[in-house]
Specification:
alpha+beta, Nucleotidyltransferase, domain 5, 12 strands
Length: 306
């Protein structure tokens, strides 16, 4: 990115933000949005509200009120963003990413805060969790150059189950009465279905073992016809060859009616038993002779993840 491109960036951002004008009921909100976003991409050393307001020449209190008390149509803004991505950044090989962000917090007033695992700290700590749906693809410009494109399509706060019964805490934090605890995989499924309704398509979806170990989540993706690459726990059980399921119902001998129904379907006697994933990868014939390759994924809190 050259100097002339950087100089045009603020004007381009302001033009793009006009697509969200109808998400705000008042013109003040639209102007404050442009002021705040413009401050985030300028050369200020500190991107706090006071510094951004001073740079733009507006009273800091008005910009603070915009972020804390003003309301706008959040769902319409999310829908508009996803529609723009589907129209302007479509890629047949786009990848969707389900991931979580954990924010360390003090006290117990913030919505969704609880003592739980905090990735930012690498340990159990007081934090809140947000489930996010990301988009990664390629796009070409007018000169034919292919560039990567990445953005966040949606994200929602996870409300722990302990918040459901604490009416006073919910009221004080401003949590709507009709917003109960929902498992993270259901939050992710809602975001995925909403993005697809807005025209976004993924060639592949990817996520970590927190979702890869959840059979209900995987079955939901199968019903949607969504292909995916999932991380799973090495202790998870499975097969390399799909087992044969017996659909015929067998009644116990000497009984006139069936007893308690089976919790799991019955497999044929010729089918192999379910085995832990790490044993399948280490000892099974189709996998043990494969030329395994080490890849450096990223640097984690405890060192490189390979």
């Amino acid at each position: 990115m050259d100097a002339s491109r950087i100089g045009r960036l603020r004007r381009e951002i302001q033009r793009e933000l006009r697509a969200f004008d109808d998400c705000f009921a008042r013109t003040e909100g639209r102007r404050h949005l442009q002021c705040y976003v413009g401050g985030q991409v300028c050369d200020l050393k500190r991107k706090c509200v006071e510094a951004i307001a001073d740079e733009a020449g507006v009273p800091p209190r008005t910009l603070q009120d915009f972020l804390t008390t003003h309301t706008w149509d959040h769902q319409r803004a999310v829908d508009r963003l996803q529609q723009l991505v589907a129209e302007q950044h479509h890629d047949d090989q786009a990848i969707g990413l389900i991931d979580e962000t954990r924010f360390p917090k003090r006290g117990d007033k913030t919505v969704g805060v609880q003592h739980q695992y905090c990735g930012a700290r690498g340990k159990l700590d007081n934090c809140m969790v947000s489930v996010a749906l990301g988009y990664a693809g390629l796009r070409g410009d007018s000169r034919g150059d292919i560039r990567g494109f990445r953005c966040t399509l949606d994200h929602r706060i996870f409300l722990p189950v302990g918040w459901d019964a604490d009416t006073d805490r919910r009221r004080e934090a401003g949590v709507p009465e009709d917003l109960p605890h929902r498992p993270k995989w259901k939050i992710a499924l809602d975001m995925l279905e909403r993005a697809q309704a807005n025209g976004v398509r993924f060639a592949w979806l990817t996520f970590d073992e927190g979702y890869g170990n959840n059979v209900q989540w995987l079955e939901a993706l199968d019903r949607m016809g969504q292909t995916y690459v999932a991380e799973v726990s090495p202790s998870m059980h499975g097969w390399l060859i799909e087992p044969t399921v017996l659909h015929k119902h067998h009644r116990a001998a000497g009984r006139s009616r069936a007893g308690r129904p089976r919790r799991l379907p019955r497999l044929s006697a010729q089918s192999a038993k379910a085995t832990r994933i790490y044993r399948l990868c280490s000892y099974s014939y189709p996998m043990r002779d494969r030329p395994w390759v080490d890849y450096h994924i990223k640097d984690g809190h405890k060192g490189p993840i390979v």
